Predict the 3D structure of the following.
Amino acid sequence: AQEAEIKNPMLTSKFQLGAGIYIPSQKVKFSIDGSSDNQNIQFDENFDFNNNQGTPEVFFKWRFSKKWSVDAEYFNANYATNRVLANDIIAGDYTFNAGSNVKLGYKINMFRILFGRVISTGPKHELGAGLGAHILAVKPFIEGNIVVNNSDNEFERVTASTTAPVPNIALWYYYAPTQKWLFSVKVDWFSLRVDEYKGSLWDISPGVNYQIIKNLGVSLDYRFFKINADVNKERWNGGVDLSFSGPTFTIIGNL
């Protein structure tokens, strides 16, 4: 009876620090108003940019009181590919002609922060909710030979960048049948217009954790992350549509 009252360390640890690898299937689409028409560059369909390359992921959790906690998380993705254009692409004053060999790519940095509160807890479970934000920094680029003033031909690299904050609400549930095993599900969602941004997101992560020793565990999660953001700023007038889904393997230290 006494052993049953001892909680899994993931339910009681004040600090958690994790580092792992996220291997998502990616679908990425940017629309950028770089000319009189809204130039839509859809990397995954038009340029077959699907891939499953792994990306590092880190997170930190601090239970600063019995009921309250703060979570921080980060992952990034950097990809590029060489393609032959099927159609002309206009970006500002530049035209990348159909048939040109170009390099297409993007850099993505995603930060997540969440302030949470435990709603219900017991020897084997925890239910909580919170408020937070996903802060997405994206920078697509295209480089290759371009047409200047309808005649001159030269090599050029065109980039666009924006940082879009998308606030969210969150729910999580942990179930630990033993001191070694814990099952979890986390859901972040929101849809809101804030100043120059209009966005929505889903961030869903069911997973399982195994506590190897008192202060060290491993987890395997499946993460579905989807975000849509419309941006109306001078440096970027357009949209971002990202969908990542795949497994995450993480090593977790807890105190």
Remarks:
- The chain has two helices and 15 strands.
- The longest strand covers residues 125-148.
- Helices lie at 9-12, 43-46.
